[in-house]
Design a protein that fits this description.
Three copies of one chain form a homotrimer. Chain A has an eight-stranded antiparallel barrel with strand order 1-3-4-5-6-7-8-9. In chain A, strand 5 and strand 6 form a beta hairpin. The first copy, chain A, has two domains: about 30 residues; about 150 residues, Allene oxide cyclase-like (AOC barrel-like, Beta Barrel). By secondary structure, chain A is an alpha+beta fold. Chain A is about 15% helix and about 45% strand. At the A-B interface, helix 1, strand 2, strand 3, strand 4 and strand 5 of A face helix 1, strand 5, strand 6 and strand 7 of B.
Chain lengths: ~180, ~180, ~180
């Protein structure tokens, strides 16, 4: 049989181990270290052609309707694919509005939902709000929340145009979303 | 007088109890278990009649202006009542814009504020952002934040149309909001 | 050499101190006590003049286009300055849209990004969503998120018009933003 002193030491040791685990949990929670990353591709045709996925709705009277013309409002429904390849699996749609909101035409306000339709996230959405700085390579906007699997989500999304075909106004845009795990 | 050993055991026991409470607190914080629920009813008249509460502002040239027509932008100011009954207490208004944002007309982008005017929450708002899947019974959008009593709010809102009168485009919509307590 | 008993008491004391620190950390995290405050000034010209920074894009057919006319949609690009003085340092722009969203013309829906361009926060944004109650002195809207330095931001913004010159529709608006530190 062990002495009372060794019991006491064992208790103390166990308590220290326990405290250590608790501390690590608290620090993780406080710093929210864990982030999830999601990558997909927007297939974007910005025109007034029948197959367009970004269409100008209205602009300021007497001005052109374009991404460089202050006040132009666009409706968006871009297919989202798993790889840059247009014929790869569709994982959802990017739906909402864009508004050229810089007087010099440089920035576009973004109000979108990523509406997932694939097996993994179908029925869930992520809500995006921010400005796209058109002259920058990487355009960062806020992920303000989400629904379904993404309830209470917070994070940011980075857009990068990786392919552009001027003749048909066709762009492939990589979107990388980083979310805090909650 | 108790022996030093019994003091030590008492201290150890107290510390264990203390640790248990602390652990429970940490787990609660980490999981944010507590949610608040709010239910109310939107009184919605979507038309161009003088008493309309949802009115089309503009659409894509050459297309109808409707909830099934991509690019149609609506302004909204729906009265919110305590019960489905139109003449029950008004608790606030749902104000903002809706945009048909699916090329096939199925989804409508939602950018609303719930502007409370009742005794309990008057002067406070909740901001909603998301898409309403019109073909689904339950339409979930994100609660992205709030003001007043709802500062720093996060959550989601579920809309369900519980009554519809086609002749006057009148709907009663139940809205259930669930918020994380913070 | 100290007795085993005094060692045990030392261990116990250290553990209590440790527990105290851990508790304080947990409470701070749970209550998120710390808030940051940012103050700046919007230089706002709401007209159709060439130097306007808030311009009506469209309104409901047959109605005036104005801040008191339900359904009017405005594009915004207000310069933001460090002090009320128009010629003080520009720290950024307030870019996005405003929509008169109360049938009685009292409230305006706000969907803006604060796009910082100064040394301290250049490349970062804060996203604002809410309603501006035009008849109130202090107009509170939600800060729903941010990018760059303000990733994962949450908070609220209070607007107050501190100067108005009717003849040129020029307002100076103080904006105080309070953010949770995360």
């Amino acid at each position: 049989m062990a002495s009372p002193g060794s019991f006491s030491r064992l208790r103390t040791k166990l308590m220290f181990i326990y405290l250590l685990i608790l501390t690590i949990l608290c620090i993780c929670e406080a710093q929210k270290l864990n982030q999830t990353s999601i990558v997909f591709f927007l297939q974007d045709i910005a025109s007034t052609a029948p197959n367009a996925t970004v269409v100008p709705v209205i602009g300021i009277k007497g001005k052109d309707w374009s991404f460089n013309s202050f006040g132009t409002i666009f409706a968006v429904d871009d297919p989202i694919t798993e790889t840059p390849n247009r014929s790869s699996n569709e994982v959802g749609r990017a739906q909402g509005i864009l508004v050229t909101s810089a007087l010099d035409g440089s920035n576009v306000s973004v109000l979108l939902s990523i509406v997932f339709t694939n097996k993994e996230y179908g029925g869930s959405t992520l809500e995006l709000h921010g400005v796209s700085r058109q002259n920058e390579r990487f355009k960062e906007v806020s992920v303000v929340s989400g629904t379904g699997s993404f309830r209470f989500a917070r994070g940011f999304a980075v857009f990068e145009t990786i392919y552009y075909e001027r003749s048909i106004s066709y762009s492939i845009v990589r979107c990388t979303i980083r979310l805090l795990e909650s």
